[in-house]
Every structure is written in structure tokens, then in C-alpha cells.
Fold this sequence. Notes:
Low-confidence stretches: none
Number of helices: 9
Radius of gyration: 36 Å
Distance between the termini: 11 Å
Helix content: 55-70%
Mean pLDDT: 86
Amino acid sequence: MILSMTGYGKASAEFRGKKITAEIKSVNSKAMDLQTRIAPIYREKEMELRSIISTTLERGKVDFSLYIERDDANAATPINRPVLKSYVDQIRSLVKDYDLAEPAEQWVPTLLRLPDVLTKSEVVELSEEEWVVAREVCDKAIKALMDFREQEGAALQKKFAEKIANIGALLQQIEPFEKARVEKIRARIVEGLEAIPEAQYDKNRLEQEMIYYIEKLDINEEKQRLANHLRYFTETMENGHGQGKKLGFIAQEMGREINTTGSKSNIAEMQNIVVKMKDELEQIKEQVLNVM
Length: 292
């Protein structure tokens, strides 16, 4: 079964008054394009996480976030009391030394705006216990994304199978018109010659020229190659994931055979069928870009 490159996964866990959340999403890309946003406490594990994600997802434009949310009781930014006291002592010393008036109403707001008075306390070192929880959250988010990719891949494979079957059916519809057009071509040439009374021609040579002309318009080889490509496309889908680029190449080859068939089709009925085949193939090409 094929996999889609589009996916989304999210997981969370509680750890000592804070919520650890991992979120990951991906869309199609020719290679692995990974962007990360990781909370400072987990930065030391960034390379490990990048390796896990790249190995598991293989390809796609991926956005990964690992962040922390605290409960309301711990969310307020604490005041750094030692720093605040130091500022107060310095200001009072300046007031005394230079005979200045002490601040009144603006005293507290001014102090709170001074550097490092308000500090966000973070755990400097990551404990092994917390990393076990965070790593499990990351693994769950990645698995959720992979499950999403499998579901999307199954839907794509079903759609591709329908489109391939439609092209195959259209290919069969060409055959009756193909046989009839040979007689039409022959009759049109003969009628054209008979419309010129004074025209003289060698019937044997005319027959040879008609055979040559009809052979140039023959599409049996194109039909056979297109049928082979349709079969190969289906087999490739069933071989497992990681076949996106290969399916794209096969679709290109299918397009060449359909285009050649169209250029050799000199009756409206065949050309209409070719247009329908191109429409089905175009839908395959659009969606094959999403395949792993």
C-alpha cells in the first residue's frame, strides 16, 4: 500500500504540573525538509529528534513542535527579589548622596520595569525522567501522523485504481474506431482520385502507398505500451510505500503514449476518447505528487 506525504499528529502528557505537547504535520516535498520549534529545556535533544523524524517519515515538508504549557498557578512570572532589593538599595543610596526626592507613586512600576526584576524560571537541566515522558509524547505524535498518512494513502490508492481502470476502459473503446478508420482512409483516397477524371494512376502503386500511409497511423504499439504502463502502475502501488517518484515516472510514460495516440488519431471519435484519457491521467499526475 502507498503512503501519502500529507499527515498530522499531536500528543500530550502531564508531568509535574506542566503539560508537554508534541505536534507534527507534513505536506509533499521532493526530499525531507524539516523545521523544528523546541522548548529550550529540550534543545539538547534536538538532533536525536531530527534523526527519529527523518528516519521515520523519509520524505516531505515537515513542521515539528515540542512545547510546554504550565497550569495557572505556575504561569505567573516570578519577581526576582534579590535583584529588586539591590535596585531599591542603590536608588536609596543615590537619593541620599545627591539629596534627591524619593519616588512616590511611580516607585513600584519603575522598579518592575528594570532589567532582570521579572524573570522566568526554567529548569536548566533536563531530567531523565522528564525526557522519557517527552520522548513518549513525540513518538505518539509521529505515530499519529503515520496513521494519518496510511489513511490518506489508502484513499489515494483507491482513486488511482479507479483512474487506471478508466484509462484501460477508454483504451478498449478505441479499437472499433481504429478498424473502421482504415476503410475510411482508403475510401477517401480513392474517392479523391476518382473525382479527377483525367488522373491516371497505377493501382498497385496506390495500394503500396496506402499501406505505407496506414502503417504510419497505426497505434498498436502505443496501445500495447500504454497497457503495459497501466499494469506496471498498479503493480508498483501494491509493492508498498516509497514508490511516489516511480509512480510519477510511469505516469509520464503513460502521457507520452496517450499523446502519440492522439497525434495519430485522425477521426473525431478517437480524438474524443484520447481527450478523456488525458483528463483521467492529469488527475493521477496531480495526486501522485502527494505519494511517498
